Amino acid sequence: GVPASRSWLGQQSAGFHTPQPPFQLGKQWGDPAGGSAGEQKSKGRWAQSEKKTGLSGTEPGTCSGEGRQNYDLLVIGGGSGGLACAKEAAQLGKKVAVVDYVEPSPRGTRWGLGGTCVNVGCIPKKLMHQAALLGGMVRDAPHYGWALQPVPHDWTTMAEAVQNHVKSLNWGHRVQLQDRKVMYFNIKASFVDAHTVCGVAKGGKETLLSAEHIVIATGGRPRYPTHGHGEPRMGLTILSLCVLSSNRLVVGASYVALECAGFLTGLGLDTTVMIRSIPLRGFDQQMSSLVTEYMASQGTRFLRGCTPSRVQRLPDGQLQVTWEDLSSGKEDTGTFNTVLWAIGRIPETRSLNLEKAGVHTSPTSQKILVDAQETTSVPHIYAIGDIAEGRPELTPTAIMAGKLLAQRLCGQSSDVMDYDNVPTTVFTPLEYGCVGLSEEEAVARHGEEHVEVYHAYYKPLEFTVAERDASQCYIKMVCLRKPPQLVLGLHFLGPNAGEVTQGFALGIKCGASYAQVMRTVGIHPTCAEEVAKLRISKRSGLDPTVTGC
Amino acid sequence: SLGVECNILELDQVDDGANVQEVLSEITNQRTVPNIFVNKVHMGGCDRTFQAHQSGLLQKLLQEDSAYEYDLIVIGGGSGGLACAQEAAILGKKVMVLDFVVPTPQGTSWGLGGTCVNVGCVPKKLMHQAALLGQALKDARKFGWEYSHQVKHNWETMIEAVQNHIGSLNWGYRLSLREKSVTYVNSYGEFVEHHKIKATNRKGQETYYTAAKFVLATGQRPRYLGIPGDKEYCITSDDLFSLPYCPGKTLVVGASYVALECGGFLAGIGLDVTIMVRSILLRDFDQEMAEKVGSYMEQHGVKFLRKFVPVMVQQLEKGSPGKLKVVAKSTEGPETIEEIYNTVLLAIGRASCTRKIGLEKIGVKVNEKSGKIPVNDVEQTNVPYVYAVGDILEGKLELTPIAIQAGKLLARRLFAGSLEKCDYVNVPTTVFTPLEYGCCGLSEEKAIEVHKKENLEVRLCFMAY
């Protein structure tokens, strides 16, 4: 069944909807009415290739590849979702092909198999975040007895190490596909018709691929500013940048902007973040402001309520940025070595020729419209991951959705992906992990008088000896006021937030009540145990600072 | 007619009379009215009250002075004891906490807060952190942080920082007790007769106190081996966390989490560490996990001497640290080995502090072999007014959060009419060895024992990246 209400982070209620299926539910392989008696017990059967419906042959003039290759499943996009789906289907015995292609960024950056997460997202982000955290540990170490003076950081060493790891993952994915006998093509795909895709390789060679079922998992790419900004600067290609620069401007307020600015500052680089309105739109705003407060205390500069109007390259190679302060209307300029745009991501649908297949997209977001089964407007075409409308833009949901889709198509299961209570973490210098509703969402949904928020400011034990400021280390649990006080959302700001939040996400998924959380014995000494000790409510007005054991 | 001031609550004249009656029934087992309390003690109904008047009990209860000086005396100011005492005080009771640390054979002592704060969880985690930072320094170079020299660790700097933090916690506890009007006495408490204890301070002065109820929360102390030289020359975790000099080349005897955690962080700060294990690692933990904990440590330079026990410790040189010769015997044959260490740290288990607190005087049952105290599911001993929490409980977990939980809930049951009991099932814990091991629920062995192998599925995953 489809859950009536879904609440996952990053989506305002206005932009989110449960798509009503005007489309048929995705079919499984084969015609249920036909098939020989000797077929396997499972519901999924696949049609003989002659019985394929809806194929009218190659469109004249679009693709002149030699004999078309037929597959049970064609996956367009070799990222988190695409690869998971492909591997699962192959494991269940289907003939699968994956096509993956990286259009170079305006700066010319490209990367290998694995999608955003592996190449220009989660993985390199976390590694650079770790590099920054290690810088903090280098500063803590003398307090704990290690005889060390402050040390400088070399970007090139880090970037090389990160790229080496990323490449090993690219390689690992290729080996995995090979092991599971999934055909991999490094070609740029676009639809010829509903069952046929034309792929163009780097050199121009074309291949025709057709499949009974097609999964679109092409993900997204960074948005660039539309006008007045001279030559576009890099989006996430910072991650392969090998140049030291003294002054960086990050434009944006997304988690991408804050995570990047965060680790840049942590590595000793002078960084400014320009935010048009609020940080981390869609996230709990109290938590978001604590996140930026911590960053500011660590040296990141913030230009709030400003929006860039012009970027010009100066004779010495630096960049002059002109911006408008929205509240005063005044203009200001600054000189930066690097400008990093992190103003959102757009779905990779433009070059797919979706209209040739009859796949519909949202007029506002350009994302592909899907139902609860991940089916598009075309019964045998599906979309998962960042490309699908209304889905969280997270690797683990794409992977799980891809696996479940493959299992459904192969008749192994009828489970649909549950997008409710998906935990996530923003890896800013002080990490923010959350699952469930923000306080604002809870109040909007249930009314303030029906919501109880328990909270605490705590100090990680490790911060004491290191003499670190823990002012923003904060936890809050948003619950229904009515007994048993169902937990609606948990928000944790502190070290290892991802590790902490993951465990509690299970509890929330199981419908934990406040009482159950309070009966969970803590592990001592940790930060996570503070979640199980949240006694002070906001409503009480009492001081929520944790004292002693 | 006795001229006693009475407060009368007519249940049929208040809005939530039915609710009040429910609660009364729960806490007194009586549904009828009148339901009479005298000086907060539940008397009963009409008949019981008349009987009490006839026997003289009613008059006794009506006296201004209650029978005992305190509502509650807690013996032991550790995790469980302090939690219980503070909760009882918040509920309006007159509470005393006695805490006293008998110095170690090496002369080490510490302040209020018990094992966790002074010689357990807190300093352990801080020193584990120091060791983790050592590893982080090595990692940092791979991530681009530039330094070429070998970084050395200074023990004294670390100890001072750790002890400063502990000192702030000791102080915090004293403040907290004072704020809640809990009387804190830094004296050794022991029973002399029913409802009465003798408190002996550092100078040997004796004072006596009485209370209606008692909670034993005296915790444990490290065991010694009972071999020549152990008390004279060896240290334990009680001494390690405030050791004023670097322990140097260290032999850790034991296979408990204490042994592995201490051995782990000592190696992590650069010391030469050997761990001598009689049989298995982390008894009662999942053995597959325990072996992985051990092999990680071995890969990172900790030496293990498996299936050996020390038989003698001799001092070769005095010093800070000195030099000790250890002779050990194999558990499987006649082989003996000898080795010289700067420090020998015994971590072979902990013994409950229940033998010398006068429990025999009031008949509290103590397990002869283990020294632990059997209690029922409301932490009550066989003597009705005596309860116990924490590490001294038989058959329960030796963990701070459990002791705190048990202590709080006990206070609420005793003084606020709560019925909630402490739940000891599925308690998570973590061993803070160099590679940390967190667990919750049954070990694989225990699961097989309880459910039989054919009813189980074990799923594994080795982390990819």
From TrEMBL, chain A:
- NCBIfam families the record matches: TGR
Listed binding positions for FAD are 126, 386
Q: Which cofactor does it need?
A: FAD
Name used for this protein in its record? thioredoxin-disulfide reductase (NADPH)
Matching entries from Gene3D superfamilies are given as:
3.30.390.30, FAD/NAD(P)-binding domain
Q: Key word Disulfide bond present in the record?
A: yes
Q: List the disulfide bonds.
A: 117-122
From TrEMBL, chain B:
The record lists NAD(+) as bound by 254-261, 349
How is its cofactor bound, per UniProt?
Binds 1 FAD per subunit.
Q: What is an example of a Pfam family matching this protein?
A: Pyr_redox_2
Q: Identify the taxonomic lineage of the organism of origin.
A: Eukaryota, Metazoa, Chordata, Craniata, Vertebrata
Family assignment? Belongs to the class-I pyridine nucleotide-disulfide oxidoreductase family.
Q: Which cofactor does it need?
A: FAD
Q: Which cysteines link up through disulfide bonds?
A: 116-121
Fetch the PANTHER family from UniProt.
GLUTATHIONE REDUCTASE, THIOREDOXIN-DISULFIDE REDUCTASE
Source organism per entry reads Gulo gulo
Single GO term (MF): glutathione-disulfide reductase (NADPH) activity
GO annotation, biological process: cell redox homeostasis; cellular response to oxidative stress; glutathione metabolic process
What protein name is recorded for this chain? thioredoxin-disulfide reductase (NADPH)
Residues covered by the FAD/NAD(P)-binding domain = 70-407
| Cellular component GO terms, alphabetical | cytosol; mitochondrion
